[in-house]
Amino acid sequence: MLSGSKVGLRARHEEDVAVLRTELFDDVVNSSRAEGGPWRPIPPGTKDPRLVAEDVEDQRVPFSVVELAGGTLVGMATLWGIDTHNRCAHIGLGLRPSCRGKGYGTDAVAVLCRYGFTVRGLHRLQIETLSDNAAMLASAERNGFVREGVLRSSAWVMGEFLDEVLLGLLAAEWKPTRP
Ligand SMILES: CC(C)(COP(=O)(O)OP(=O)(O)OC[C@H]1O[C@@H](n2cnc3c(N)ncnc32)[C@H](O)[C@@H]1OP(=O)(O)O)[C@@H](O)C(=O)NCCC(=O)NCCS
């Protein structure tokens, strides 16, 4: 497990899947805002690639996020679109509703940066989020991510086009909070 100051990132366990599906993917609004595609219901037992416990692809590493104190599951984190030629990847994060606003998102981004830069030797990490997602923007910027642009009307979300913000962080700019 990779630990931050509040949360740890560990492998996806089979028992995490039902909780994450119910709290993150069954919720139409949350799912529509966090995913780049349309919400659709996921039948229990389906091997949804966003949730499966196995590391299915080289370009994607799924983590479950847990509280360091007690090990309670608080959400999911993903390093995705890993490009080993250009040495870059994207970060994705989703926390259970009851676990938001406690600093876990900021800490999870810090741990994902450590995984991307230190463990994987990447050069650049990228985040795309809706321009009204204040908590995600702050979680990224607290870790040194820089706003690089606005993708105007790039996301169709629940009946309207919304802007996305593109944020990037280079390895040379990253200031690790722990070794
Ligand atoms: C986005 C998300 C991962 C952020 O994690 P979090 O644990 O809630 O965020 P934190 O508690 O670390 O807060 C980070 C900052 O945002 C602020 N913040 C938190 N919730 C906020 C809210 N609802 N509105 C405005 N600001 C908020 C905090 O005050 C903090 O600011 P600070 O750095 O100035 O102290 C989490 O809220 C989440 O899972 N949301 C739903 C899914 C989602 O949007 N995923 C991202 C898709 S790209």
Automatic annotation (TrEMBL):
Q: What does the UniProt keyword field contain?
A: Transferase
Question: What Pfam families is this protein classified in?
Answer: Acetyltransf_3
A single Gene Ontology MF term assigned here is: protein N-terminal-serine acetyltransferase activity
Recorded hits in InterPro entries, A to Z, give:
Acyl_CoA_acyltransferase, GNAT_dom, Ribosomal_N-acetyltransferase
All copies of the N-acetyltransferase domain together span 15-163
* PANTHER family, sorted: RIBOSOMAL-PROTEIN-SERINE ACETYLTRANSFERASE (PTHR43441)
Listed name of the protein: Protein N-acetyltransferase, RimJ/RimL family
